[in-house]
Amino acid sequence: MVCIRQATVDDLMQMQRCNLLCLPENYQMKYYMYHILSWPQLLYVAEDYDGSIVGYVLAKMEEDSAECHGHITSLAVARTHRKLGLATRLMSATHAAMQEVFGADYVSLHVRVTNRVAFHLYTRTLGYEIHDRDAKYYANGEDAYEMRRWFKPKADKAKAAAAAAADSKDGAKAAAQPAAAVTRWWLSTGGVALGLFWAG
Question: Is residue 168 classed as helix, strand or coil in its secondary structure?
Answer without folding.
Answer: helix
